[in-house]
Amino acid sequence: MEEPIEESYFNWLCAKVLQPYNANHRELLKILYQTEFVWTIPGDRNRAEDGVELREEFLKATFIRDEPMWHAYPCCILEMFIAFSNRASFQTDTEPQVWFWVIMDNLGLDEFRRVTGRDRAKIEDILYNFVWRTYSSDGYGGMFPLRNPSRDQREVEVWYQFCDYLEDRGLLYA
After folding, report:
1. CA 147 to CA 144: how far, in whole Å?
2. Is pTM beyond 0.85 here?
3. DSSP assigned state of 21
4. What residue ranges do the domains of the chain occupy?
């Protein structure tokens, strides 16, 4: 019997970021997969579109027939993080998987290897704060916390938060 497209796609996404040393994070990734990425800053719509474009890449790589209803779902947080990691990699020559786990670490999500009921509530709180930008103005609680912010990161597109993060951490490449 054929695996449902959603499950095949989830497994494909997991393979992009999981290695044997962190395979226990699968339960966490499932929560990210089940949580919609809602953009509140207009430019972040691009991040959602990047995430949804992963579905086309998946279909081309696997030759699985598209199911229009599945393809019409909104972008989930897992898709956004993976797509963003791909863009960050292109910009910095650091592997996408590395950027993915930097994001997870910055959000405080990498510690959830085995997800319990209590953990799920903590994860959902972290994701809520991220999506609705209730984290601190220096970006702590978001994807890219800064030591020396020049502006309120809650009002900045994620891509420009990333650029500020590179500068703040001395990671800009000439």
Report:
1. 10
2. yes
3. G
4. 5-136
